[in-house]
Task: structure prediction
Amino acid sequence: MSLSMSQASLPVFETGLNALSGVLDKAEAFATAKKIDPAVLLGSRLSPDMFALARQVQATCDQAKNGASRLAGVEPPAYEDKETTIAQLKERIARTLAYVKTLDGKKIDASEDREITFPLGATNKGHMKGADFLNHFVLPNFYFHLTAAYAILRHSGVEIGKRDFLGAIPIRRS
Amino acid sequence: MSLSMSQASLPVFETGLNALSGVLDKAEAFATAKKIDPAVLLGSRLSPDMFALARQVQATCDQAKNGASRLAGVEPPAYEDKETTIAQLKERIARTLAYVKTLDGKKIDASEDREITFPLGATNKGHMKGADFLNHFVLPNFYFHLTAAYAILRHSGVEIGKRDFLGAIPIRRS
Result:
C-alpha cells in the first residue's frame, strides 16, 4: 500500500485553501465588528522583512498552483499580485482551486521520480525529484505561508483556532 | 509509481526538526550578541492565547513522535514538557529524532488504509485513515508549530530566512 502523489498534494491544497478562505471570512467579520479598515489587516506582518497578509495569501495560492502544475508537467499560469481587498483574495483562492482541479492527477501520480526544474528567485533554478519536490519544497512552503497568514490574523486579534487552520479534514470524532 | 507512507513522513520530520535545531542555534547566538536572557525568547508568543516558543518546539517534536508512532502502530512515549533552556529544547529535538529512527518504516508503509485512533484534547478521540491522518492532521500540525516557532523568533529580530526553515533539503541549484 502506498500514497499516490496526487493524493498527497491535490486534496491537501484544496483543504488548506478552503480553510484559508474561511479564515479570511472571519477576518472580514472582525474588521467589520471592530470598524477596522480591512486594508490594515492586509498590510499587517509579523516582522518588517516578512510578507504582509495579502502577499502570504498570494504565496500560499502560488505554492499550490505552481507546485501542482510542475508535478503535472505543465508550466503554471502567472497570476498578477494585485489583490487589495479580502474579497479579491478570496477570489484568488477560488481561481487557484479551480485551476488546480484542471490538472491531470495521473500525470502527477507519475511524477515521483521525474526531475522537476523550477525558478528559485529571479535568476536561479532548483532541481528536485518529484517526490522530494512535493515533500521537501512545495508542502513546507505551502504550510509556511498558510500558517503565516493565520498567525498574522491571530496576532491581530481575530478569533480563530486550530480547527480553522486545519479546515474540513476527513476525521471522525468520538 | 507512488510515495511510501514512510517516505512522506520520516525524512520530512527529520529535515524539519534538524532545521528547527539550527534555528534555535541562531536564536542562542542572537540572545548572546544582544545580551538578552534566552528565557525571554522561550516565553515569547505571537498572541496571548497562542503557545510561547518553548511549547511550539515541544509541540513540533510531539507531532513527529506521536504521528510517526501511531502510523507504526506503536503507542508513543510521553515526554514531559519541562525544558527551560535552548540547550534543553535542542536535546528534546535530538531525543525525538533518535526515537523516530527506532520506528519500523515497513509498519508505517502498511498504515495507509488502517484506522488510526488518537487523543483529541483531554477526553476526546479522533479517528482517521492512516493516509488522511498523515496528510490532513500530522503534517499540517507539524508545519503549523514549526512555522510558529520560526515566526516567533523572526518577530523577535532573529535573522533567519526561508532556507533556515526548509533545512537541508535534497535540492540541486543552478
